[in-house]
TrEMBL record:
CDD domains, alphabetized: TM_PBP2
Transmembrane segments: 12-36, 75-98, 110-130, 142-162, 183-206, 255-275
Keywords recorded for this protein, A-Z: Cell membrane, Membrane, Transmembrane, Transmembrane helix, Transport
Topology versus the membrane: Multi-pass membrane protein
Domain spans labelled ABC transmembrane type-1: 75-273
Subcellular location: Cell membrane
Database matches in Pfam families: BPD_transp_1
Domain of life: Bacteria
PROSITE patterns recorded: ABC_TM1
InterPro entries, per database record: MetI-like
Protein name in UniProt: Carbohydrate ABC transporter permease
Family of the protein in this entry: Belongs to the binding-protein-dependent transport system permease family.
Length: 290
């Protein structure tokens, strides 16, 4: 009987490994195709389509993008949106989560219900647009930052984690004369870094991939973030784009499309390895208590 179990376990483990390898290849293959195709010449891509190993390596697609004012402007717009937006997101989320984690807070139950209500029911696109327009935030990044200031789900998870921390930590700090802000800053945050970093990564991804709200609230094309530029390059007819046509033909070639996809994903790919070790731990720590 033990031998049969060992054989079954071995078969099961092999099946799991095979399935995971297939899934990994399904993810890695298109990504590798994009990377190598971005270094191929336009002539080769026209002849062969996407390639896994170019016959002729060239940086023309990247040179064009780096010289393209539309791309550089949209890239730095995305950086601004992401850095400032994520800072606002995580700051307000942590402050609200810490406040709602206090058992003696008056009106805590009502506020928690209001937060949960926003997860189930949303005002809708048109009412939200009217509010943003009424506040005079159209054509301002504040229309994106304020609308997305706090994600209720993220706040609830962080609040739940704060509730699991020993009360003795805060009580001893209060005895030493620490105020609530100093308790949060010097005691709670240092022991909560895995959770904070995890949700910082979540907010970073959301802000970097901002597209729909940018199109909805921003009328000035010079304020568009990178994802809007990416959509224009990949979907919109090249003849509708400025700097896209010259005497020699279209400049937004297949190589350029592959290059812009890679450059749009590169910042998140570069940041994720530094946060990966905190990711699983942060999610588990934040979901222990409801």
């Amino acid at each position: 009987m033990p031998k049969i179990r060992n054989v079954k376990e071995l078969v099961f483990q092999l099946a799991v490994v095979v399935i995971l390898l297939i899934l990994a290849l399904a993810v890695a293959f298109p990504f590798a195709l994009t990377i190598f195709s971005s270094f191929a010449s336009d002539k080769e891509l026209l002849m062969r389509g996407a390639v896994l190993w170019p016959k002729e390596w060239t940086l023309d697609a990247y040179r064009f993008l780096l010289d393209n004012e539309q791309f550089t402007t949209s890239f730095w717009n995305a950086v601004t949106l992401t850095v400032v937006g994520t800072t606002i997101n995580i700051t307000l989320t942590v402050l609200m989560a810490y406040g709602l984690a206090q058992q003696d807070l008056k009106g805590r139950t009502v506020i928690n219900f209001m937060v949960l209500f926003t997860m189930l029911f949303h005002g809708g696109m048109i009412p939200t647009y009217l509010v943003v327009h009424g506040l005079g935030l159209i054509d301002s990044y504040w229309s994106i930052w304020l609308v997305n200031a706090i994600a209720p789900f993220n706040m609830i998870i962080i609040r739940s984690y704060f509730q699991t921390l020993p009360k003795e930590l805060k009580e001893s700090a209060r005895i030493d004369g620490c105020g609530e802000f100093n308790i949060l800053l010097r005691i709670i945050l240092p022991v909560s870094m895995p959770t904070i970093i995890t949700f910082t990564l979540f907010y970073t991804v959301v802000n970097w991939n901002t597209y729909f709200q940018a199109v909805l609230y921003l009328n000035d094309t010079n304020s568009y973030p990178l994802q809007v530029f990416l959509r224009q390059v990949l979907i919109v007819n090249p003849s509708e784009l400025g700097l896209s046509v010259t005497d020699s033909g279209y400049l937004y070639t297949e190589a350029v499309k592959h290059a812009v996809i890679l450059l749009a994903a590169l910042p998140l790919i570069a940041v994720y390895p530094f946060m990966q070790k905190h990711f699983s731990k942060g999610m588990m720590m934040g979901s222990i208590k409801g």
